[in-house]
Automatic annotation (TrEMBL):
This is Iron ABC transporter. It is a multi-pass membrane protein. The chain crosses the membrane at residues 55-73, 85-105, 111-131, 143-163, 190-211, 231-256, 307-327. It comes from Streptomyces virens. Keywords: Cell membrane, Membrane, Transmembrane, Transmembrane helix, Transport. Gene3D superfamilies: ABC transporter involved in vitamin B12 uptake, BtuC. Belongs to the binding-protein-dependent transport system permease family. FecCD subfamily.
Length: 335
């Protein structure tokens, strides 16, 4: 197990290094010069004020989404449960876009956008819990109602776009997910939030492991299943809201990375949750590095001055393809 954690941590370091040298405006040699204390003022600004916070935000958001996904899948006993099932992701998108359309927030003010996204995400989760309360916390009903709540919130986002068509750029960024333009303020808002709620999720590792086995076994072991599930969902909501507020709605990270974490680190969530955090950081940071490299290649091939491939588009395409492969290879499996 220690070796697996060491390998995963090494992969995270490699992905972080690749992302630092993958962007436009600086050659890899210039990056190493700045890291060694050299470089001119422009190169230092690009690396230290733009690339470094972007890399850290990608790591933190990936870790948060992966842990949130594993918590949700364990609490709801649904292998297809992701952060979207709580209504947090579309709620955060709606909150950020609405605040931007009303002029209350803008991309030049990360704090205002983050606060608006968190309020929207918590409102989406609150709406789900109001509906799920009637089902007494039944996991299957909660998952279905979460899909319905997410659809309603997505429709409201579309209505905001119709009222304020000038906010199309904001809508696309939040719906797809991107790390473009992330600065130190985003990181300073993200890491304390992710650390606190990630630690809270880890403290619930024992109850979550019992919930994965079913409520009957959990009750036999003396666990108050409904209370433990509520606390777990609160952690998942908070982690998702923080990540979405920072980078938007990255698709499939919270759905597929937890399965990989369980396969690599085992079903004991005391190891699975930290493993999921590392793997989520690797996936998002690696995808962001690949997106930047692809953007450079596409811009050169199409002779375009500026072409940006959002990391969310890459994770969505690769995640969907991977999910289709898994379903086709295990057609008899019940999801």
């Amino acid at each position: 197990m220690k070796r697996r954690f060491a390998v995963t941590a090494a992969l995270a370091v490699v992905c972080a290094g690749v992302e630092l040298v993958a962007g436009r405006g600086m050659s890899p040699g210039a990056v190493w010069d700045v890291l060694g204390g050299g470089g001119d003022a422009t190169e230092r600004h690009i690396l230290l004020q733009l690339r470094l916070p972007r890399m850290l935000v990608a790591l933190g958001a990936g870790a948060s989404l992966a842990v949130a996904g594993l918590v949700l899948q364990s609490a709801l006993r649904n292998p297809l449960a992701g952060p979207e099932v709580t209504g947090v992701t579309p709620g955060a998108v709606l909150g950020a876009v609405t605040a931007t359309a009303l002029g209350l927030a803008g991309w030049e003010s990360p704090l205002a956008v983050v606060l608006a996204a968190c309020v929207g995400g918590c409102a989406g989760a609150g709406l789900l819990w109001l509906l799920a309360g009637r089902g007494r916390g039944d996991p299957a009903q909660t998952a279905v109602q979460g899909v319905l709540v997410s659809a309603v919130l997505g429709g409201l986002t579309a209505m905001v776009l119709l009222v304020e068509p000038g906010e199309l750029g904001s809508v696309v960024q939040w719906l797809v997910g991107t790390t473009e333009g992330r600065v130190w303020e985003h990181w300073h808002l993200l890491w304390p939030w992710a650390l606190v709620w990630g630690a809270a999720a880890w403290l619930l590792a024992g109850p979550l492991t019992l919930l994965r086995c079913g409520d009957d076994i959990a009750l036999t072991a003396g666990l108050a299943a409904r209370r433990a599930r509520t606390l777990a969902l609160l952690c998942a909501v908070a982690l998702t809201a923080g990540a979405v507020a920072a980078v938007g709605a990255l698709g499939f990270v919270g759905l597929l990375v937890p399965h990989l974490a369980v396969a690599v680190h085992g079903a004991d969530l005391r190891a699975g949750l930290p493993g999921a955090a590392l793997l989520g950081a690797v996936v998002v940071c690696g995808a962001d590095a690949a997106a930047q490299l692809s953007s450079r290649l596409l811009a050169a091939g199409l002779d375009a001055d500026r072409l940006t491939l959002p990391v969310g588009a890459l994770t969505a395409c690769l995640g969907a393809a991977l999910l289709l492969v898994v379903v086709r290879r295990t057609p008899s499996r019940t999801f």
